[in-house]
Write a structure and sequence with these properties.
By secondary structure, the protein is α+β, with helices and mostly antiparallel strands. Helices cover 46% and strands 23% of the residues. The protein has five helices and nine strands; from the N terminus they run E-E-E-E-E-E-E-E-H-E-H-H-H-H. The strands form two sheets. It has a five-stranded mixed sheet, with no helix packed on it. Strands 1-3-7-5 form a four-stranded antiparallel sheet, with no helix packed on it.
C-alpha cells in the first residue's frame, strides 16, 4: 500500500538555504504548518547529524497551527567548489486520539501511516556589496530575541533592568572597587611599616653604642682582674718580706 501524501505544509518546501560566512553558526528556519483537523506528530532527520542542531527535532503540531523549526549549521571551512550533499527529511503521521507515549507511537506505526518530505541544503556566501547590509541585519536579528525574552520576564524582574537601577549597580561596583583598592594600599603600607620596624630593630642590636658598651664592659672586667692581681702580688710581697726579716 502506497504511503500517504504529506499533510504538513513546509516553508520552504524543497530547499534550506544557509547564507555565510560560515565561521559562526548559521541558522535557517523551517516552518511546519498543520492545516488538518487532527494533531500531527513530526520528526526532522538529516543525513549529517553532526553538522546540524535542530530545535525542536520532534513534537506534535496541533490542528490548524504551525511551528518554526530552527536548523543550525555548525561552523566549518567553506569550499565554494564543493556542492552540498546534505539533506533533511520531515517525517509525520496523524496522532492517535488516545496517544500517551509519542515514542511508542513511532515504534508501532505502520509504514503506510508515515508521511515524509525531503529538502536539500544549499550554501551561499553574501556578495561583497551586501556585507555591510548583512552586518546591520545580523545586529537586528540578534537583538530581537533578547527583547522578546525581556518582555516575557515578570514585572519585578524587568523593572530591575531600569536605567536608574543600572546606574546604581554601576556606582556600587565602582565603590566596591575603590574600597578594595584602598584596602590593598593599607595592607601594603602595613607590610612596609612592619618591614621598616624589623630593619630598625636589627641595627639597634648591633649599633655602635651597644658595641662601645660591650667594649667598656670588657675593659672594666680586664681592669678589675689587673687590680686583683696587683693586690695579690702586694700581699705576697708583704708576706715574703716578713719572712725575710
Amino acid at each position: 500500500m502506497a504511503r500517504q501524501e504529506q499533510v504538513l505544509q513546509l516553508e520552504p518546501p524543497h530547499e534550506l538555504k544557509f547564507r555565510g560566512p560560515f565561521t559562526d553558526v548559521v541558522t535557517a528556519t523551517l516552518k511546519l504548518g498543520n492545516p488538518t483537523d487532527r494533531n500531527v506528530c513530526f520528526k526532522v532527520k538529516t543525513t549529517a547529524p553532526r553538522r546540524y542542531c535542530v530545535r525542536p527535532n520532534s513534537g506534535i503540531i496541533d490542528a490548524g497551527t504551525s511551528i518554526n523549526v530552527s536548523v543550525m549549521l555548525q561552523p566549518f571551512d567553506y569550499d565554494p567548489n564543493e556542492k552540498s550533499k546534505h539533506k533533511f527529511m520531515v517525517q509525520s503521521m496523524l496522532a492517535p486520539y488516545d496517544m500517551t507515549d509519542m515514542e511508542g507511537v513511532w515504534k508501532e506505526a505502520k509504514p503506510e501511516e508515515l508521511m515524509d518530505s525531503k529538502l536539500r541544503c544549499a550554501f551561499e556566501l553574501p556578495l561583497e556589496n551586501d556585507k555591510t547590509h548583512d552586518s546591520e541585519s545580523n545586529t537586528n536579528v540578534y537583538s530581537t530575541p533578547i527583547k522578546s525574552e525581556l518582555s516575557s520576564l515578570p514585572k519585578s524582574a524587568s523593572s530591575s533592568l531600569d536605567d536608574g537601577e543600572a546606574k546604581k549597580i554601576m556606582e556600587e561596583c565602582k565603590r566596591l572597587q575603590m574600597e578594595v583598592q584602598r584596602l590593598r594600599e593599607e595592607n601594603k603600607q602595613i607590610r612596609e611599616d612592619d618591614g621598616l620596624r624589623k630593619r630598625k630593630v636589627t641595627p639597634m642590636v648591633s649599633s655602635p653604642h651597644s658595641s662601645s658598651s660591650q667594649a667598656m664592659m670588657k675593659e672594666e672586667g680586664l681592669s678589675t682582674r689587673v687590680l686583683a692581681l696587683c693586690v695579690l702580688f702586694f700581699v705576697i710581697g708583704v708576706i715574703i718580706g716578713k719572712l725575710a726579716l
